[in-house]
Amino acid sequence: MFDVSISTMKRDLDTMNNKGLLKRVPGGVTTTKGELATPTSIASYANVNAEKKLKISGAINEVIEDGDSLFLEVGSTCHYAYQHLNRKNLTIFTPSLQILTTKNDNVDHLYCMEGEAVLPYLIIRGFPLLENLKRINPNKIVFSCYGLNEDYDLVGRVDYDNAVLRTLLDMRGEKILLLDSSKICVNNTFFVPDITKIDVLITDDGIDEEHLNKIREKGVKVIIGK
């Protein structure tokens, strides 16, 4: 029908697979859209809203105490926060290769979470990570996400991110969400209701007053980094 040979089609599919334009699977191909990798490099993404992220990370020690055990999620905001931790004798669990390869003298124990290493983006992901999260019990869970929608539900970039968010929200420790003001009132197909499971939101001073009041009305403590 397409006036090309089967061997040519297979060769073209292999080429597209190697370039990351699609993914070969048994019996066919599938789109790479919605895969774990972000559409930009980790270095360039870290520079997006860097000033806001620095304000957030500067406030992280308001909710951390000496001797705390923390889960720290992937992402540039969490990496900034990790670098600003100045409480002593900390224990950290993380799937962030950025954090795992960054020295902080205040961290006594640094644990690597199990899963698949996605090296271009310096993260560990996959379903082994979800199972591993159920076997740890840190007293603080520090994470970020794609954003909050207009109803203040947590928004994941892809559905797998929401699976991670749901698992984190079911953990026993205090939930601390790091989110810059540009990520409030965004929309996506995937979300996790709702923000009431968050204990503390740390954001920057660019947050709209209306959003600030509505989030506080839901029982969430809001700390504004300046």
From TrEMBL:
Keywords of this entry: Transcription, Transcription regulation
Organism name: Anaerofustis stercorihominis DSM 17244
Single annotated GO MF: DNA-binding transcription factor activity
Protein name from the UniProt record: Transcriptional regulator, DeoR family
Stretches that traverse the bilayer: none
Record-linked InterPro entries: Carb_Metab_HTH_regulators, DeoR-like_C, DeoR_HTH, NagB/RpiA_transferase-like
Domain of life: Bacteria
Domain called HTH deoR-type: residue spans: 1-31
